[in-house]
Amino acid sequence: MSSVKRPINIHKAYHAHVYFDESTLALAKDLCQLADELHKVRVGRIHEKLVGPHPKWSCQIAFSSNVFDALIPWLEKHRQGLSVLVHGVTGDDLKDHTEYAYWLGEPEELRLAMFQ
């Protein structure tokens, strides 16, 4: 998909959702833990179930625009094939997961009906 939008730093706050499955669980845990240690971000629970609009198991990394320029290239380099949704946090969940959504790796189809 050539029309994938690359992350840009235009919001005050962001979430990165690291997607994984049973076979990549350890990789995702390590990635999120290392992101926390190196970039001082807020890492949420490792969800081994579907939550919110996310079509796969996921872990949320919350961070500010101050960390964006260091974190995003680091995530791109270390994600080892995992898909990562990066989106602004503006208070408008639908826009955050569509208009303000960017991808590292292969985009996934989000379950957006919950925001309608």
The CATH homologous superfamily corresponds to: DOPA-like domains
Low-pLDDT runs: none
Reading the helices and strands in chain order gives: EHEEHEHE
Q: What count of structural domains?
A: 1
Q: CATH class, please?
A: Alpha Beta
Shape: globular
Computed structural class: alpha+beta
Strand content of the residues, in percent? Answer: 25-35%
Protein architecture, described:
By secondary structure, the protein is of the alpha+beta class. The chain has one domain: Alpha-Beta Plaits (2-Layer Sandwich), CATH 3.30.70.1240. It has 3 helices and 5 strands. Strands 2-3-1-4-5 form a 5-stranded antiparallel sheet, covered by helices on one side. The longest helix is centred in the first third of the chain and has 15 residues, at about 25-40. The mean pLDDT is about 95.
In short:
The protein has 116 residues and is an alpha+beta fold.
List keywords for this structure.
Alpha-Beta Plaits; 116 residues; 5-stranded antiparallel sheet; alpha+beta; 5 strands; single chain; 27% strand; globular
Question: What layout of secondary structure does this protein have?
Answer:
Elements (H helix, E strand, L loop, with lengths): L12 E8 L4 H15 L2 E6 L9 E8 H14 L5 E5 L4 H4 L4 E4 L12
Antiparallel strand pairs: 1-3, 1-4, 2-3, 4-5
